[in-house]
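Incident log, support desk, overnight shift.

02:14 A customer reports that sequence design results differ from what the structure should imply. Their input is reproduced verbatim below. On-call engineer (initials T.W.) acknowledged and began investigating.
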């Protein structure tokens, strides 16, 4: 009878998870998690990254649905309220032409987001294809591609962007093309540098041995293995594009009236920053929130996707 009790107690202890030995150094065992869930878990532990996602989502919702809360369009003029401070009728005030700043901010943020996201996606696609192709083919193709990249990097691209966009009347769709044409080189060089090690991997050699074509090897075996690098650069590229578009529009070379972007709003408010500070403050606040949120998200993604990151391994608590 004593033997049965002892055996039962031993069996119960073996089945109780609370009595199981802890993993070394008190760390939780994450081997059962899938790769995607592990990345998400690391990302969510980074409080600043989560804050960045929340702010960015709120900005997107504001740009999409913000116009539902006002009866004014960004192009409407209220001549009875010229340069009026924020009030119950015009929440963000009006400018010198009587345009509602709230409606203009909604449209301007939507326009800036459309340009930034489009340019960032197109830039990553072009850079990934060119950079990985140069690394895979090597030889003369690699040398020629790098020569073109290095030449374009020393060209005063900002001046060319200003001249081209100004000649084409500031069409935001043309601005997307121009920013993409002059924005892929740095990313392509980084991708080429990383891809030079991937072309020597066994799975690439096996694909070549099986007779798979070079374009398919690049698209199926090299670029997918650059996923973490591409995602981080895509996120940070949004920040760079927002700043570029804002600077061009601020100087009068980007989006042109009657269209509105955050850059054009900043340009309009810069001359009246002391007499009518709301004209500058609201678009400036949106630019700051957008750039800071995407920077937090980019840092969080980098830490979550990089296994050597100290912050990512530690959970990203800041």
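02:41 Re-run completed on a clean worker. Output:
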């Amino acid at each position: 009878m004593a033997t049965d009790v002892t055996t039962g107690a031993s069996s119960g202890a073996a089945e109780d998870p609370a009595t199981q030995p802890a993993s070394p150094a008190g760390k939780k065992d994450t081997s059962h998690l899938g790769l995607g869930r592990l990345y998400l878990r690391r990302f969510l532990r980074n409080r600043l990254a989560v804050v960045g996602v929340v702010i960015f989502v709120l900005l997107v919702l504001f740009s999409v649905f913000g116009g539902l809360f006002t009866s004014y369009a960004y192009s409407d003029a209220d001549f009875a309220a010229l340069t009026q401070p924020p009030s119950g009728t015009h929440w963000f005030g009006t400018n010198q032409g009587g345009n509602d700043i709230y409606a203009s901010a909604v449209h301007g943020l939507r326009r800036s987001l459309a340009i930034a996201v489009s340019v960032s996606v197109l830039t990553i696609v072009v850079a990934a294809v060119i950079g990985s192709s140069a690394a895979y083919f090597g030889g003369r193709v690699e040398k020629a591609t790098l020569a073109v990249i290095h030449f374009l990097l020393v060209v005063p691209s900002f001046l060319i962007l200003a001249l081209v966009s100004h000649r084409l009347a500031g069409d935001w769709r043309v601005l997307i093309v121009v920013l993409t044409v002059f924005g892929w080189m740095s990313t392509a060089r980084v991708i080429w540098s990383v891809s030079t090690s991937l072309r020597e991997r066994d799975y690439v050699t096996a694909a070549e041995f099986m007779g798979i074509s070079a374009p398919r090897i690049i698209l199926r075996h090299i670029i997918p293995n650059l996923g973490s690098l591409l995602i981080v650069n895509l996120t940070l590229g949004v920040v760079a594009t927002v700043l570029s578009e804002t600077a061009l529009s601020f100087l009068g070379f980007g989006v042109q009236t009657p269209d509105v972007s955050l850059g054009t709003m900043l340009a309009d408010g810069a001359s009246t920053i002391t007499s009518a500070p709301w004209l500058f403050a609201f678009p400036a606040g949106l630019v700051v929130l957008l750039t800071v949120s995407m920077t937090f998200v980019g840092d969080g993604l980098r830490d979550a996707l990089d296994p050597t990151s100290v912050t990512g391994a530690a959970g990203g608590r800041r």
